[in-house]
User: What shape does this take?
Amino acid sequence: MLSLLRRITQEVTAAESLPAALDIIVRRVRRSMRAEVCSIYLVDSNTSEYILMATRGLNAEMAGSVSLKSDEGLVSLVGRRAEPVNLEDAHIHPSFHYLSGTGEERYRSFLGVPIIHHRQVLGVLVVQHEDKRRFDEGEEAFLITLSAQLAGVIAHAEATGAIASLSPNADPVGSDFRYKGVPGSSGVAIGRGVVVFPPADLDVIPDRTTTDFDQEIEDFYQALDAVRQDIRKASNRISKHLSDDEKALFDVYLKILDDNSIAGEVVKKIKAGNWAQGALRQVIKAHIAQFDRMDDPYLRERASDLRDLGRRILSHLQEKAPNLVERFSEPSIIVGEELTASMLGEIPIDKIKGLVSVMGSGNSHVAILARAMGIPTVMGALDLPYAQLDKVNLIVDGYSGKIFSHPSEALTENYQQIVDEERLLEEEYEALKDLPCETLDAHRLSLYVNTGLSADIARSLDRGAEGIGLYRTEVPFMVRDRFPTEAEQVKIYRLQLEGFAPAPVTVRTLDIGGDKSLPYFPINEANPFLGWRGIRVTLDHLEIFMAQIRAMIKASADLHNLKIMLPMISNVAEVEEALALIRRGYAEVKEEGYNVKMPRVGVMIEVPAAVYQAKELASLVDFLSVGSNDLTQYLLAVDRNNPRVADLYNCFHPAVLRALLSIVDQVKDEGVGLSVCGEMAGDPMGAILLMAMGYDVLSMSSTSLPKVKAVIRNISMTQAKHMLDEVMKLPHAEAVTQTMTRLMRHANIERLIRPAKTNVN
Assistant: This one.
């Protein structure tokens, strides 16, 4: 059963069009279940009708021309219930409706299962027999399993416009294709897409049109020759260590390369308009799919040989291709399957208008980096056909998490109005730069920034930051190919401390693990977010921890504005051990003659255990800083980098709000500083609630700071506490955001957060 499911799914995935994919489904399912009829009905998004799109057993000429209303027939019953309907005699069911011309009057038994993707019913898969009999549990389970696997293929076709409208007489839609993702960084970007991808990875190579066919073909043949030479050299180099059978494997590789069918197919696709890399991907993946469908295990294994050869050819093709920087003649929207910080580091910041990533969520590190740079971003666009978006006009809506390709003139004009309004808001924010963050009734709130790069310093000071609430020391560790020395770290930290002196600078000790890895210090774990990360790593490696502590303290010489923060604390013993080591490091630096003071030390509250021990932790340290990103993740058991559960990740969940308020209540008499340095602090809605709870410092990206200041200066503490009282009674995160939106509108501050026209779509 599993092998059959795999083969059907592979065939459908490799199909060149939606009609071809649907025909494969009905043909293979009918044969494998020995059914007399198999049909697929898809929901028309415009009319909500169920349209017969493919069938084997009914009149195939009726496909695409007959439909059932949303409340008509057994098919729509399956859709409304979103669960299977299995009937021995469909004709006697009150919902039965005969579709004239299809020939289904002969068929009595009926099994229909819904095709569901992300909670949305896309269609119904149906099998039928002439005789009266109920399909057994095994047959029903098979059909349910198959429909679940095929839902993604159909959803992708819908997203790309292949089934934008299924109505028989509807006009084709040629623009405004919409894809849904997760908001990563607010704002709107309008521009052309540039698809970026890691090297030598066939799966992520985009399609790209070309008119210079001769050059692309020449590059392809040169790459073929280069791979032949590589294989011959490898064979000669190790031939004396191989048996004749093993040496024959190299001959197989060479025969595949010399097989003109593959090369000919690539050349044919180049002449059809695709560049060499895209043509190679199409041909190699098509052949791999053929091998994967074979029953013979030996032949299936040849798919890996073909993939390896494809990568080798691609690698040589990419050596001749322009590098990433050379591809940017104008500011563009960067699109990729999984954007990384290192990818962004290769592109000049002035060439990035917006970012779109298929993988990741609104709290991935790329999204956090985008917010720091003020770049409109959408993450987790799982159904995005990113390979087809190179040099395509796009609109990125970072407010709602939508991407539009081939936007119409009307849609572009609407979004341009938002861009113009954003510019006016920025001018309003600029006037607040030197003013204090103070409410209408004179309550003072300190606004700090989160930094990770030296470039953040000037940007943060320009926007009125009063200090650094979080300096991420892992950033300079991640951009190197080895651990930075103590002397190198002193220089790095000194830049941050000097840049903000005499204002406080909170430096977090190395926080790796989870989704933050060092290329030279890999941590491979089945469940990394519950594994070896943060303080757990550095306390296990005192050579790393002590070098970092000494470097921080040395960097603070004569400035005395250093604060040290410990990440991922889950128990009191970790704090006691770390404090003893910090005191030791301070004594060592003092002995070396540096003019330093013992820095204030604090801990991050990021895990539930720390929430419930906040009072005990506060008795040991000078300040507490809540990392709302990880705290939300751990409280809700939601991986914040997983786009499939991104909708569940919400810092306004009542459990998160209650935890935040509990921390304040526990430490109000302990005399410690209390701050929030997660992304919630940079959300104006979150900032109001945190201030009302009693947090006195909020740390955020420099881009968020002016917006938060504008809101706080236009509200009173009394209003903020009233808002907090209202939302703490609510049971759902959605109710919290809706209530806050309404209250902020009444307070006339919603206009300060985003342009008024952000509901254009």
Observations:
- Residues 163-173 have pLDDT under 50 and may be disordered.
- The longest helix spans residues 213-238.
- The CA atoms of residues 349 and 373 lie 9 Å apart.
